[in-house]
Amino acid sequence: MNTIEPTTVQASACLICSAARGEQRFVQRGYPVFRCAACGFEYVAPTPSAAELAEYYDRGYAVPLERYAAAQARNATRIAGLERWRPERGRLLEVGASYGHSLALARERGWSVAGVELSPGAAAYAREHFAVDVFDCDLLDAPLAEGSFDAAIMWHVLEHARDPRRQLLRLAALLKPGGVLGIRVPNIASFGAKVAGQWWPWMCPPAHLWFFSPATLPRLLQACGYEILEVKTLRGDGNNLYQYALMAVGSRLNDLRLRLRGHSRAAGRGGGPQTPESRDRSSTRPNAPPAPSGLLQVWLRLLARAQPITNALARGTRPLIEPLEGRGWGDELLVYARKPAQ
Fold first, then answer.
1. Straight-line distance from the first to the last Cα atom of the chain, in angstroms, rounded to the nearest whole number
2. Engineered SS bond to 244: which of 150, 192, 250, 310, CB 3.0-4.6 Å?
3. Per-position b or e across 98-137, b if 16+ CB within 10 A of its CB
4. What is the C-alpha to C-alpha distance for residues 220 and 222, in angstroms, rounded to an integer?
């Protein structure tokens, strides 16, 4: 992992507050990650082009069908959560409908459903196996009538979008007055994100480009005309707190090792220390992270072996941990918002 010293530089305008000065935190997978100096929002800059993202998703990003098929209980819980804010049901749109399992379940619960999914294969599966209307295109290009939906859900999609603001404005146009929007995204203010840093599993550009918090996502929604109904954090699919603590120890030890090695080499040469920036410039491609050292590889293997132990600790202390995860520590951020009634 290549960490750089924070520097304030001119970056693209912040999605949340439009400020143009950001602090570069680090370079992850070759992509600079910034923190807005004004509001604290974190994001990749510059935003990858549409062609670059298309190539990435075509080449190496896919979620197995089996994972969605096995998540019926989770899907039921999520739809039930939406129904707290829209008990009368109505017409539901899912952005990022994947293979259609969630929409099929919502239909069983009394919803009229439709979806949008970028993957042609997943959209075709949803149409063929569940007979649900899923358009294989971007939300901005979907042939949907304005004001035709009573609710919309977007589970772990907004962090992938090139332009989240346009996505939210399009959804506002598609919703009826009083329509409800539910959004789930990774929570950059979580315990895991704070202590694991670059090691946090959701810090994974170019798949994830925007890193929202309980402060920044509601602010963006309000700027797009929504009323906030609920903001909460959850465990989600992230790791347990004990595993994150171990990741943090490894990250700090690796940083210390790099610093000591840099000072040692500088003393031997009589020159300045080797900085992460100079290591990046000497690599075969710009901002390419160095290969993990032997010591780091050993630590990663130890982390893998510790996983069953930390999972058992997490289960045993669940009554203590769950309240913390619900009060901002959880890896998943859930926000419900409403289009104002006219």
1. 51
2. 192
3. bbbbbbbbbbeeebebbbbbbbeebbebbbeebebbbbbe
4. 5
Pairing of strands 133-135, 112-116: parallel
**How far is Cα 103 from Cα 155, in angstroms, rounded to an integer?**
12
Q: What distance in Å separates the CA atoms of residue 94 and residue 152, rounded to the nearest whole number?
A: 6
H or E segment and range at residue 187: none
Q: Is 71 helix (H, G, I), strand (E, B) or coil?
A: coil
| Per-residue model confidence as pLDDT tens digits over 183-217 | 999 999 999 999 888 888 899 999 999 999 999 99
User: What whole-number distance in Å separates Cα of residue 184 and Cα of residue 174?
Assistant: 19
Q: Which of 158, 150, 154 is nearest to 180 (CA)?
A: 150
Burial class from Cβ neighbours inside 10 Å (0-12, 13-18, 19+) for residue 202 reads buried
- CA atoms lying within 13 Å on the CB side of residue 262: 14
pTM of the model: 0.83
The tens digit of pLDDT for each residue in 122-141 reads: 999 999 999 999 999 999 99
- Distance CA(147)–CA(179), nearest Å, equals 9
